[in-house]
Amino acid sequence: MLQLRPSFLIIGAQKCGTTSLYNYLAQHPLIIPAKNKEIHYFDINFDQDINWYLSHFHLLSSSEQKGQFFITGEATPYYVFHPLVAKRVFNLFPDIKIILLLRNPIERAYSHYKHEKELGYETLSFEQAIEKEEERLKGETDKIINTEKYYSFNHQHYSYLSRGLYLEEIQLWLKYFDLKNFLILSFEELIINPSKIYTEVLTFLNLPKWKNKDYLKYHTGLTSEEMKMNTRKELMNYFKIPNKLLNEYLNKDFNW
Q1: How many beta carbons lie within 10 A of that of residue 173, not counting itself?
Q2: Is the distance from CB of 79 to CB of 15 less than 8 angstroms?
Q3: pTM of the predicted protein model
Q4: In terms of CB atoms within 10 Å, which of 93, 113, 167, 230 comes out highest?
């Protein structure tokens, strides 16, 4: 029996199309998806050993292999934001390929907020939540780094604006990985032209082209309540410089 080990990780960002992309990849005949899309090993389950992690990937018999080279991977969108994950991944899988989807951080924050509200984790208005974010997250990152076993509910669930500071997250990962390990994609492009993005990912993973039967959009059932215009204007100003620095760093214009 051959124990599959992950060849790629989709590390985020949350509410940026990771579920859709992962489901598209799962349709490829040479990709065997993990038993669960989000394993959360490198963030909240790192007290488990590596065998626990690998048990979430399939075993292949010699007859199942049939001379084909199969790959597997998982998608946990908290990975990109958690301050310890990059180091943990590098220590175990230094050559792994990393896929990152980015979305207009204003839309991402609002989608994140609506998600938490529907889960029952958020009771504040969006405006109250982003005003209270700094207080909610104060000291949480340091606790995670200093203890390594500390789990922060607030850090995972109430980081609406913080998760949209993408350059800070990418630079943390680049302390361990080379940029060539990364494929950084646009959520907006995935929505407009999923087949193009899908082909880019297959090329990045060194897989043959494959035409999917469909490109369904996943997790689209959230409330359509619109953001207040004044709030949007405030957030456009908040993210203006971080977005500019991100575009310059990656030499890519996300048109946000």
Answers
A1: 21
A2: no
A3: 0.93
A4: 113
